[in-house]
User: Which sequence fits this backbone?
């Protein structure tokens, strides 16, 4: 795919990307909160814009996807531009999946969805996901200016969500020396950028470095099979309604501490990228320094839900370097629920 990354690119570069793809009637999709930004992109597209559809919602409910597909068909759209976070890009992917229309992504968070052929749809409370090259954006336009409005708290958790993609790529069964390079550099870039973003949220260079990290980490997510961490976060989000990026932030150090004995090379690569001795502790401390949540209790999960969550996550098929057992997942969940430092019995 083509990638453009520079300040101002959302309005400056999106029309050129559409033209390059031969597209003349693009439906712009976004969430209600991102409508102003999406309208700026729509204005830049001028007559090549077939409308703005601002109905994206978290986890792409199937009825939301149905409406967007109907709007795209009614408008005679020949392409789709998704402007926003993972939820907006997810809606664009649903339109691409159902209609075959090419997708251009203009991301405004660090979720990395724009780099993957993975789609998700939620029906009757259950989220189905799949892989289809039709949903992989043809062009991605990263514009650091779009992320200036991303609040620091969300920037931090979204950035650590990105780091989680790279961490699991490092021990994925289908990883390669190239994905390992991208993953280590992705962790390094994001972990350096986030403190800069937190201390100076208006810094375009820092925002640009965070998007570079998101690009790398998203590419790792698209190229490899994720493990226990993503499975567990999927259950906590899908069944227990926990917020996506925050949940990833809390869970990651604990899953890495659990998996590290079975994936010492991956843990060492993450430690190198973080310039630390112990990768799980460094991730836990990074979240703490940046004011991110560190316990599932703080995100509203009840202790009584832990056994059901552990059983559900352990019951799903999937890759992981260490055998996944209900007891093992429960231990990870208990530590994450209490917000203990990983690998210890102590809450800090
Ligand atoms: P999101 O898109 O729901 O955005 C989170 C919140 O941030 C929303 O309220 C949104 O309006 C707001 N927001 C987004 N950009 C903003 C900006 N620049 N300024 C101010 N506010 C802004 O959440 P997300 O974390 O980006 O993505 C999570 C979703 O993406 C989940 O549903 C997840 O499953 C999915 N996802 C999918 C893939 C994939 O490969 N398919 C990868 C990663 C995430």
Assistant:
């Amino acid at each position: 795919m083509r990638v453009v990354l520079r300040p101002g690119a959302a309005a400056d570069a999106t029309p050129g990307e559409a033209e390059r793809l031969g597209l003349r009637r693009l439906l712009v999709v976004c969430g209600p909160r991102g409508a102003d930004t999406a309208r700026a992109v729509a204005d830049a597209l001028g007559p090549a814009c077939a409308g703005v559809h601002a109905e994206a919602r978290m986890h792409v409910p199937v009825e939301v996807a149905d409406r967007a597909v109907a709007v795209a068909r009614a408008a005679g759209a020949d392409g789709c531009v998704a402007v926003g976070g993972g939820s907006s890009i997810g809606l664009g992917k649903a339109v691409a999946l159902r209609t075959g229309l090419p997708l251009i992504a203009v991301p405004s968070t660090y979720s990395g969805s724009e780099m993957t052929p993975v789609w998700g749809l939620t029906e009757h409370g259950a989220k189905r996901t799949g892989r289809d090259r039709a949903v992989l954006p043809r062009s991605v336009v990263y514009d650091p200016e779009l992320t200036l409005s991303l609040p620091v708290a969300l920037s931090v958790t979204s950035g650590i969500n990105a780091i989680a993609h790279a961490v699991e790529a490092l021990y994925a069964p289908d990883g390669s020396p190239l994905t390992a390079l991208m993953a280590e550099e992705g962790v390094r870039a994001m972990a350096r950028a986030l403190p800069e973003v937190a201390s100076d949220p208006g810094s375009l260079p820092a925002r640009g470095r965070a998007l570079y990290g998101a690009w790398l980490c998203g590419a790792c997510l698209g190229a490899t099979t994720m493990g226990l961490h993503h499975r567990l976060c999927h259950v906590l989000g899908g069944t227990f309604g926990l917020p996506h990026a925050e949940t990833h932030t809390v869970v990651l150090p604990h899953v890495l501490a659990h998996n590290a004995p079975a994936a010492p090379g991956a843990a060492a690569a993450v430690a190198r990228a973080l310039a630390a001795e112990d990768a799980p502790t460094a991730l836990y401390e990074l979240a703490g320094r940046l004011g991110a949540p560190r316990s599932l209790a703080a995100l509203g999960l009840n202790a009584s839900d832990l056994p059901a969550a552990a059983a559900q996550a352990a019951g799903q098929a999937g890759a992981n370097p260490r055998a996944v057992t209900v007891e093992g997942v429960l231990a990870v969940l208990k530590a994450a629920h209490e917000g203990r430092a990983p690998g210890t019995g102590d809450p800090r």
